[in-house]
Design brief:
Elements (H helix, E strand, L loop, with lengths): L1 H16 L14 H15 L2 H9 L15 H9 L11 H13 L1 H24 L8 H7 L20 H6 L14 H19 L2 H10 L1 H10 L15 H19 L16 E6 L2 E3 H8 L3 H7 L7 E3 L5 E6 H9 L1 H5 L3 H4 L23 E6 L6 H7 L4 H8 L11 E6 L4 H5 L6 H7 L16 E3 L4 E5 L6 H5 L7 H7 L13 E5 L3
Antiparallel strand pairs: 1-4, 2-3, 5-6, 7-8, 8-9
Length: 516
């Protein structure tokens, strides 16, 4: 078996070095990781309030059925060709495997996604249309979060309907703090996603590469393009992309198929009664969702589901006006009872210092460290939390949790605590003394990453208010902005008179305004 595996891998490398585009079963790769992600997303969705309520109202809906219908490859290929889409929807064995996840292995849970489409898809289509984006990009939300605005990736911390990382969310204007996380707000997050997707298209002018870059970041796509001899076709750079992204486009195609042809597989959408008739009112004083719930007799779960961005339930209107979404039939009563609601147990619900996040939400749960061996790693120049978590094979969120790391800020010489399996502690204890190249080789990567080069090597002082950054190969304006605290993309573009953010040049000098 081992010899067969080596031969398959060798053939796989030859295939991609030829630059051919995979169309059928020519490629043989495992999609277990991607299938596991789909399953995890669907499991998370089933725990959401409206889905649980729908299951209570339809007690026999989930029966454990995984006897879905399989069709010949020619049928899948023909059906995909009939979907109206500006984005190519090719078929191969990887796509087939993902189709079977949606239509067979997770068919009943996928029915919950179908039940949510009537609520989320019109909103997404409307926003994407206003930004001039193809409506079919809405399928990305299915594979990003299974249409769950409270979805949280336990490893990366990516959050919400569009799975924004902290830095990218902030870059596109989303408020993220201990009380408000607008990555969970479906409307605001979709607007931010539309801006990000539009910016990516200005770089690649290819929708498939845009979808890939949304998953792994433009920096990784740029590296894959460079390493493939400047080829700009997704399938030609396929093998040089991160493993997760290699499964992302096939998963997108499978989601498009499953959304359009679920009935042919005997799948019925779960009837989910999210109130389509809602309205938003701006509040300019603090108010708590529990106050509204108890005074107006609206289920707290429903209020949280309609306002997922308020992590603790507190709507901090006194800081700045905040949007509150209510079922339309309750809006007039809320206006009439406004003072009564705020006067209900204010000492309990409006004390910001005692706010506790709702424990029923999807959130990161750190792994149990009982029985694990504690190791200490000293941060070196060029290190990042992402690199360190890969070297020790631990989750990025775990590393942050153990060491109280905010965002991705670590400093040279900082001591980090890492917990590993005792049986592998001797192996992992050597990592602290290795060079960067040696550490990269332990995870199957070679060469010094551009990210590992100290950022200070590309910075120079100009005056007391600005620093100058020299653009490196593979940099994008978004990668550069993430290096600096409290700096926005718009500020950098305006300061440097850049009108086409996708066309910055290697060696170009960018002025970055310091923040006090």
């Amino acid at each position: 078996m081992k010899r067969i595996s080596v031969i398959i891998t060798f053939l796989f490398l030859i295939f991609f070095s030829a630059g051919a585009a995979p169309e059928t079963d020519t490629i043989i790769i495992k999609s277990d990781i991607e299938s596991e992600k789909i399953s995890t997303d669907l499991d998370s969705l089933v725990c959401s309030w409206y889905v649980k309520l729908a299951l209570q109202n339809n007690p026999g809906f989930f029966t454990g059925d995984t006897t879905g219908i399989q069709y010949p490859d020619s049928v899948y290929k023909n059906r995909l060709s009939k979907i109206n889409s500006l984005i190519k929807l090719p078929f191969n064995s990887i796509v087939r495997n993902h189709i079977h996840v949606y239509t067979i292995k997770q068919r009943e849970k996928f029915a919950a996604v179908l039940g949510l489409m009537d609520y989320y898809f019109p909103m997404i289509e409307d926003i994407f249309d206003s930004y001039g984006l193809p409506a079919e990009l809405k399928y990305m939300a299915v594979i990003e979060s299974a249409l769950n605005p409270n979805a949280v990736n336990r490893y990366s911390g990516a959050t919400g309907l569009w799975q924004f990382m902290y830095s990218t969310g902030r870059m596109y204007g989303l408020t993220i703090n201990s009380i408000v996380d607008e990555r969970r707000n479906p409307v605001l997050a979709t607007q931010a996603a539309a801006k990000y997707i539009r910016d990516l298209y200005s770089i690649y002018n290819d929708w498939t590469l845009v979808i890939a870059a949304y998953n792994c970041g433009p920096g990784n796509v740029n590296k894959a393009i460079k390493r493939s001899g400047n080829k700009k076709d997704y399938w030609e750079i396929f093998y040089r992309l991160p493993r997760e992204t290699r499964g992302y486009i096939p998963q997108y195609v499978a989601a498009a198929y499953a959304v359009n042809y679920y009935s042919e597989h005997g799948i019925k959408p779960l009837p989910i009664n999210i109130p389509v008739a809602t309205d938003t009112i701006m509040v300019n004083k603090d108010i708590h969702l529990t106050q509204i719930s108890e005074v107006m007799k609206i289920p707290l779960g429903e209020l949280r589901a309609l306002n997922p961005q308020y992590k603790t339930g507190l709507v901090p209107g006194s800081s700045k006006p905040q949007a509150l979404t209510l079922p339309m039939n309750h809006l007039a009563d809320f206006i009439d009872l406004n003072d009564t609601i705020r006067g209900y147990k204010p000492e309990l619900y409006l004390n910001r210092t005692t706010q506790i996040a709702d424990p029923s939400r999807s959130s990161y749960l750190p792994a149990d460290i009982k029985g694990k061996t504690k190791l200490i790693y000293s941060v070196k120049d060029g290190d990042s939390p992402g690199f360190i978590s890969e070297w020790y094979h631990v989750g990025l969120s775990e590393l942050r949790y153990w060491n109280n790391i905010y965002r991705s800020t670590i400093r040279v010489g900082q001591k980090l605590v890492i917990y590993v399996d005792p049986s592998k502690s001797q192996y992992y204890s050597k990592i602290n003394t290795m060079s960067f190249d040696e550490k990269q080789r332990t995870i199957g990567k070679t060469g010094l990453s551009a990210v590992a080069v100290p950022q200070t090597a590309f910075l120079s002082q100009t005056d007391g208010d600005y620093v100058t950054y020299t653009v490196r190969y593979g940099d994008t304006i978004w990668d550069i902005v993430k290096m600096f605290d409290n700096v926005t993309t718009t500020e950098v573009l305006n300061l440097n008179n850049i009108t086409e953010p996708g066309k910055i040049r290697v060696g170009q000098k960018l002025k970055i305004k310091k923040k006090s």
